[in-house]
Amino acid sequence: MTEQVRIPQVSQYGSVDPAPPSKTTVVAELRQNLVDENLAMFQRMRAVFALRNQGTEEACLALCDGFTSTSALLRHEVAYVLGQMQNTAAIPTLISVLEDVEEHVMVRHEAAEAMGAIGDRSVISTLKKFAASPLPEISESCIVALDLLAWVDGSEFEQTDW
Fewer CB within a 10 Å sphere, N or C end of the chain? Predict the structure, then answer.
C-alpha cells in the first residue's frame, strides 16, 4: 500500500501557508476560532487563512481581532496576512500594534511591513517615527515599508531622508 503524500498548495497570494484554510466560510465562526485560546494552533491558523482568502473588510476586521491572542506567533501571522490582503481597514490596528512597546518585536516588525504592503500613504508619519527605533527589527522594517511606499509612487528605493 502506497502512502498518499499531500503537497502544500500555493495560495492566491503566492505563499505556501503553514496550514490550509478552513473550509468554513462564515466570518463570525472563523473569527471565533481565531480568538479561541483553547483551540489548537493549527485550527486557529486555518481560520487566519480562510479569513485572508475572503478578502473582505469584514474578514479583515475579524483578523484584526486576532491581535488579542496570547500567542505572538499567531499575532505575527495575522499581521503578515493583513499585509497580503492590502485592505486599508487594517491600518488603525496595525498602527496600534507598531506603537505598542509591550508587543513582541517580531509582531511589531510584521505590522510595519504590512503597512508598507497595504500602500496607503497615511502611514508615512508613523513609519518615519519608528524608523528611528533603537530596535533594528523595528527600524529596518519601517525603512523597508517606507521604501516600498516610495517605489509604489514611482520614486527611488532606499530613501535617505526618512
Answer: N
d(CA 44, CA 74): 8
Question: What is the predicted pLDDT for the residue at 145?
Answer: 96
Which of 55, 29, 56, 59 has its CA nearest to residue 44? Answer: 29
Q: What region does 158 belong to: left with phi over 0, alpha with psi -120 to 50, or beta?
A: left
Is there a contact between 126 and 162 (Cβ–Cβ < 8 Å)?
A: no
- Could you tell me which of 19, 25, 33, 157 has the C-alpha nearest to residue 80? 19
Residue type, 10: V
- Return the half-sphere exposure (C-beta side, CA atoms, 13 A cut-off) of residue 46: 13
Single-letter amino acid, residue 142? C
Is this prediction's pTM over 0.85? yes
Which pLDDT does position 6 carry in this prediction? 67
Please answer whether residues 148 and 116 qualify as being in contact, where contact means their C-beta atoms are separated by less than 8 angstroms.
yes
Report the C-alpha gap between 40 and 156 in whole angstroms: 44
Half-sphere exposure of 71 (CA within 13 A, CB side): 19
CB 129, CB 102: distance < 8 Å: no
Strand partners, 159: none
